[in-house]
What does this fold into?
Amino acid sequence: MPQKISALPVKAKVRDTKTKYYGVPIGWVIGDKNHAGYPANSTTLVAESIIKICCFDATESGGNTDRERYGNNRYSLANIRQWLNKSGTGWYQAQHSYDRPPSNSYVWSGYNAYDTEAGFKTGFSPQFLAAILPTTLTVAKPTTDGGGSETVTDDFFLPSKQEVGLGSENGIAEGSLLALFNSNNSSRLRTCTPQAIANSNYTNNPSSADNWYWRLRSPYSGSASSVRIVDTDGGGTYYSACNGNVGVLPLRWIYRDRVARAAKAEAHHQRKAYPIQRKEDKHIAPTPGTTQLRGAGLPAVLHHYGQRLRKNM
It folds into this structure.
């Protein structure tokens, strides 16, 4: 029986075999559905694992001394925000007069520069780019920039402290708690993909079994250069924006109804079920225990691979 993505539970795992980063399909987890305060009729997808290790923002050429030394912690101006929402090379554009790209010369100890890397959206299939819902986000502003908050509208973004269960920043509620997370640190523990580790030049990389640091969009508002992150124990801490040893765990909202029309799940109740393939789906490698989510004319295929679906769903 056809299964809509909107009917899958929070924590269900899905992926599009033609949407890739570092050459492999990106694994996503359903983080929430019709999340309060965000676009109606949408499903929130959160990367299953840390997909990249890099800085939040490069050191600057002048202006504020801390930002000149350690980078800018204002999300609206950050290198990582640009990269997440661009396709192709040459994605970097200066956001202000002191801005610099995340090149070897401007990231901490030359770790994990990404100015010459193609933007994150480069590897996405056209069908899924078309299904993404631009989302307006609240972000706390550092007190250096006047405090309070501002909004940004993006396709891909980093979560906030509030959204992952770590509370408000300087009294600013940056969204609301996603169903995937809670007050327990264990809900925030994440490991890196093997590809994130292999493509990192940090000298003390984790193993693929180690929980690792990952970035939030929230600033440490009392600082001009420090950004909130999730620590290896799942708690909260902060690091300098230019540090290239912290992971990236992106989010996106997608149209629930659009994906439901485009992607259908075929249920398999066998103990070791393999996806049923059509002639035009030759790019799909049969994987035990997966369920395809697909639709007519959709070469990119979502797989629900976290659990078997009952035939009577």
